[in-house]
Amino acid sequence: MSHLSEYLQAHKGEHTIRWIGRECGKRGHDVGESTVIPYFNGSHRGTNDKVLVALADVLNLPVTRLRELAEVPAGETSPWSPPLEANMMNDRQRKAVDELIRSFVKAEAQTPASKGRRLAAVPDKIAASKRAKEAGDSTPGQ
């Protein structure tokens, strides 16, 4: 069993995993019972940040601790908001900044301290699909 699973088991109190999964949904997280079960029994493959955020919310645990146990960058407890000037960026510039952020997180996740595990918050298929779409956008003058 993973350190994350052991920690979640130790901190779930008297709540059932079913209740935790339902509560995640009730609190507005796009996470359900079938998604959280592997995190408690140690069969989760990688981690998904939205699941860690939901579990931290429902169990009143620090999300940074869950990330550390999942061996991904601990990050911050609140979402990042770009400066107001970001509103002046066009769509291509925004996509470039998004990719830069993803590359920072991916590089951090692959440091020796994180033992090379990847952050699964942004699946490769979605990123690949975006890159393919953008490649088709390479018309002159853009």
What's the quick description here?
54% of the residues lie in helices and 0% in strands. The protein has helices at residues 3-11, 17-26, 33-41, 49-59, 63-69, 91-109, 124-135.
Backbone CA Rg = 18 Å
As a percent range, the share of helical residues equals 40-55%
Q: Average pLDDT value?
A: 80
Low-confidence stretches: 114-129, 138-142
Would you report the number of β strands? 0
Number of helices: 7
What letter string, H or E per element, gives the SSE order? HHHHHHH
Question: So what's the oligomer here?
Answer: single chain
Biggest beta sheet summary: none
Tell me what portion of residues adopts beta-strand conformation.
under 5%
What gross morphology would you assign?
elongated
Counting helices, strands and paired strands, the structural category is: mainly alpha
N→C terminal distance: 50 Å
Features:
disordered C terminus; 142 residues; mainly alpha
Word description of this protein:
- The chain is mainly alpha-helical.
- It contains seven helices and no strands.
- It has helices spanning 3-11, 17-26, 33-41, 49-59, 63-69, 91-109, 124-135.
- Helix 1 packs across helix 3 and helix 2 (17-26) crosses helix 4 (49-59).
- The longest helix has 19 residues, at 91-109.
- The radius of gyration is 18 Å and the shape is elongated.
- The model is unreliable at 114-129 and 138-142 (pLDDT under 50).
Give the arrangement of secondary structure elements.
Elements: H1 3-11, H2 17-26, H3 33-41, H4 49-59, H5 63-69, H6 91-109, H7 124-135
